[in-house]
Amino acid sequence: MDSIPDMDITVTTTTTPPATSSSATSSQSSSRYENQKRRDWNTFGQYLNNHRPPLSLSRCSGAHVLEFLRYLDQFGKTKVHTPICPFYGHPNPPAPCPCPLRQAWGSLDALIGRLRAAFEENGGKPEANPFGARAVRLYLREVRDLQSKARGISYEKKKRKRPPQPLPSTLLQQQQQQLHALQSPPPGASA
Length: 191
Description:
By secondary structure, the chain is mainly α. The chain has a domain at 32-155: DNA polymerase, domain 1 (Orthogonal Bundle), CATH 1.10.150. Helix content is 44%, strand content 2%. The protein is built from six helices and two strands, in the order H-H-H-E-E-H-H-H. The chain has helices at residues 23-26, 32-50, 62-72, 105-121, 134-151, 169-183; strands spanning 78-79, 101-102. A two-stranded antiparallel ribbon has the order 1-2. Helix 2 (32-50) crosses helix 4 (105-121) and helix 3 runs parallel beside helix 5 (134-151). The protein is elongated, with a radius of gyration of 27 Å. The N and C termini lie far apart (94 Å). It comes from Tripterygium wilfordii (Thunder God vine). Keywords: Developmental protein, DNA-binding, Nucleus, Transcription, Transcription regulation. Residues 32-159 form the ALOG domain. Belongs to the plant homeotic and developmental regulators ALOG protein family.
């Protein structure tokens, strides 16, 4: 299979980016996200063309997406320690080791998000989106857990801070009455 550069490197292809209804993607001032999404989409298209036998997008499944993600590992820059490595579970090892370089979980997760969006923007039906397949979600979770243990870095989901809930009007009225009662002198007290 022909070599495909790392996802962070601009891919030069002979295909033109697909036309979209958004004027932001067709202008020269496209956002960084849109540019990266277009490059990722072109890279995935190149991967499908280089697949043996060549694969059309309509026949692409979650299994092909997994094959693509595993293929990308050869371009990874993240050291993932094996369980037999003395640095297994250490985020900053003191010496080099022969453990493989892989794509970082966060990079793969972001890549799948961009490709999932690009698939639908390029005419794919959401229910047929191979980037949203259950197998892909399970693979990403497995990679996250494996890298978390191997590198000693926990990937905890950030909890959203919820704004304080407004009090129901009846409870608010009761609190205002209690506050008023505390502020006014008791009956029969002289002023």
